[in-house]
Write a structure and sequence with these properties.
The protein is mostly helical. The chain contains six helices and two strands; from the N terminus they run H-H-H-H-E-E-H-H. It folds into two domains: about 100 residues, no CATH class; about 30 residues, no CATH class. Strand 1 and strand 2 form a beta hairpin. Helix 1 packs parallel to helix 4.
Length: about 130
């Protein structure tokens, strides 16, 4: 059995590992810490005040990292949604109302023009001729 000092050091090490994974963006690995974290937290009442203060600071730092990570993930999801909307030809006005776009017709016209150009200049674009 380990004493309070070892338990405190183990919990501090665990919190440091969690923070490191948060900073690296290794979110999948965070799930592996749950049992260890529960066991470490169960022994908090036996720890001396200085160890508790260090653990609290580490936990607050991890909470700040986790909040920043969540904000970053929300920003990425929002941006991916914007990119998807743009790819589908969707747009919105300043009031958030959806605007009808003729982008699909424009894309078809560009493709048709490109096909016509290639057919008209097939001989000049022939790689064997170059």
């Amino acid at each position: 059995m380990t004493g309070p000092a070892e338990q405190g050091a183990a919990l501090e090490g665990l919190l440091a590992a969690i923070r490191s994974d948060l900073r690296r963006g290794d979110y999948a690995r965070l799930e592996t810490y749950s049992r260890q974290l529960e066991a470490g937290l169960a022994g908090l009442s036996d720890l001396p005040q200085p160890a508790l203060a260090r653990i609290l600071r580490a936990a607050e730092g991890n909470a700040a990292c986790l909040a920043a990570a969540a904000q970053g993930i929300r920003a990425v999801r929002r941006r991916l949604g914007e990119i998807g909307s743009a790819a589908r030809g969707e747009a919105y006005d300043a009031q958030g109302r959806r605007l009808p776009l003729a982008g699909q017709h424009r894309r078809l016209r560009i493709e048709s023009n490109a096909r016509d150009f290639v057919e008209a200049h097939q001989e000049r674009l022939n790689p064997r001729r170059l």
